[in-house]
């Protein structure tokens, strides 16, 4: 074998290795794109289910969950409103037990910060006007005293 033949063989081997590497990278890129597409479809479906899920449909308008609290690992006490009546239910161990029944209270406006927001805004505006008047009247008096 001549030296030209050995060099040519080495060049062919290197170009074959580069071709295999490029082919591998192309396959990896296609796989990553397919995986990203599947994850995107899953995220889109989950967002769609949150918007149009079982709690969002109109067939449940007579039954409303008012409150729920855990009293054990698998036991809960749940308050459910059914057509103007509150049912206090014990849920656990694969069964539901009615603990108490009472008429639902009349809805009222919350007495928290949301109800007091207009009152606070009005008081804040009054305080700002009062402070602005005091500041400008003091500066006018000071400028009159300096003259």
Shape: flat
Going by helix content, strand content and strand pairing, the class is alpha+beta
Kindly state the mean pLDDT as a whole number? Answer: 77
The parts where pLDDT drops under 50 for at least 5 residues are none
Count of distinct structural domains: 3
Give the ordered list of helices and strands. Answer: HEEEEH
InterPro entries: Flagellar_biosynth_FliO (IPR022781), FliO/MopB (IPR052205)
Subcellular location: Cell membrane; Bacterial flagellum basal body
Main location: membrane
Pfam families: FliO
Describe what this molecule looks like in 3D.
With 147 residues, the protein is of the alpha+beta class. It has 3 domains: 1-61; 63-103; 110-147. It is 54% helix and 22% strand. It has helices spanning 3-51, 117-146, and strands spanning 63-70, 76-82, 85-92, 95-103. The protein has a 4-stranded antiparallel beta sheet, with no helix packed on it. Strand 2 and strand 3 form a beta hairpin. It is flat. Its main location: membrane. Pfam families: FliO. The chain crosses the membrane at residues 31-49.
For this entry, give a set of tags.
cilium, four-stranded antiparallel beta sheet, 3 domains, 147 residues, Flagellar protein, cell membrane, alpha+beta
Tell me the layout of helices and strands:
Blueprint: H1 3-51, E1 63-70, E2 76-82, E3 85-92, E4 95-103, H2 117-146
Antiparallel strand pairs: 1-2, 2-3, 3-4
Please outline what is shown here.
This protein is α+β, with helices and mostly antiparallel strands. It contains 2 helices and 4 strands, in the order αββββα. It is flat.
């Amino acid at each position: 074998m001549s030296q030209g033949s050995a060099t040519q063989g080495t060049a062919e081997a290197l170009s074959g290795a580069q071709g295999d590497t490029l082919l591998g990278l192309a396959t990896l890129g296609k796989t990553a794109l397919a995986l990203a597409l599947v994850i995107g479809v899953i995220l889109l479906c989950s967002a769609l289910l949150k918007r149009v899920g079982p709690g969002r449909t109109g067939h449940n308008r007579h039954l409303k969950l008012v409150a729920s609290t855990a009293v054990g690992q698998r036991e809960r006490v749940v308050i459910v409103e059914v057509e103007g009546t509150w049912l206090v239910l014990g849920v656990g161990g694969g069964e539901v037990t009615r603990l108490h029944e009472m008429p639902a209270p009349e809805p009222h406006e919350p007495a928290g910060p949301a109800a007091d927001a207009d009152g606070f805004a009005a008081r804040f505006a009054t305080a700002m006007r009062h402070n602005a008047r005091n500041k400008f009247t003091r500066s006018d008096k000071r400028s009159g005293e300096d003259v």
